[in-house]
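COURSE: Structural Biology Practicum
ASSIGNMENT: Worksheet 4, Part C
STUDENT ID: 0417
INSTRUCTIONS: Below are two proteins. For each, the amino acid sequence is given first, followed by its structure token string. Answer the questions at the end about the second protein only.

PROTEIN I
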Amino acid sequence: MTSSIKVSKNLTPRNLVETKALLLLSGGIDSPVAAYMMQKQGLDLIALHFSLEPFTDNAPEIKSKELAKKLGIKKFITITNGKQQAELTKVCDHKFYYILQRRLFLRIAEIIAKEEGCKYLITGDNIGQVGSQTLKNMETITKAVKITILRPLLTNDKQQTIDLARKIGTYEMSTGPEMCSILGPKHPATKSTEELIETEEEKIDVDRLIKESLDTIRIDKL
């Protein structure tokens, strides 16, 4: 499903620049390292952070913003959609939460990327690092959007990522509890199909969740 919703404020469409990419920055160890690796390939990055407020405070956003500054990223975008993420847990089968959450994130990110002239999305995904990050689930997640998703850490050993985070000075900044999992199930689904997840998405109004999320958009120049 591809939403036709447009961003209605704060973003100015630009001509596409092939070297621009939108980074999904969580504040954890992985996404800053993914950003660094893509910067080395010449990509100019904009950071996008999804805040779980009101289920957390704004500490993850503050941490992510500091990481963006450390990486030399000049534009930081925040979407606050904790309530919309929580709706996924109430209406849909909880074991599919991470898949549904990531599909929602990517749909929102794709809209913002288009407005910002970004050709790619960048994530810190890594195969098997958490129960939901299996190849099958990533395939289901990726099918939610048409934009190209770059996953430079996909096959990294965790220690490789930690070592590089220490080298570039983001490791200490990234440490701390992972707040993005507080709504997640104890036993997330490790297998899925697009058809199965689309059936789950029929239980919710995806376009409404996207619109409500985009209505919270905040942009900071760093």
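PROTEIN II
(use this one for the questions)
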Amino acid sequence: MTILITAISIISMIALATPASAALWQWEQVSEEGFGDLTNDYAWSMITYTPPGEITEYLYVGTLNNDLSGVPGEKGCEVYRTNGTMDGGNYVWEEVV
């Protein structure tokens, strides 16, 4: 048991000392902040999907939208999608919900 606790402690210290830039997975932002709507707090979920009758696969991203303006219907979620099309070096996103 002492060996297990020591091993976990050493691994934890190494993980904490490793800079974030050395992480195995590097993420790259592929949309503008909040998909252009700064009331979008964060991406809630993502999935790839090909709609029935189409051959194009899309990446769908659902966001939590926390618009506190008081306008009815302005709070909840938004869903965006892209098929990988780029314009000027940026992905083209379409709001679908």
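ANSWER KEY EXCERPT:
Q1: The mean pLDDT is 77.
Q2: Residues 15 and 22 are 10 Å apart (CA to CA).
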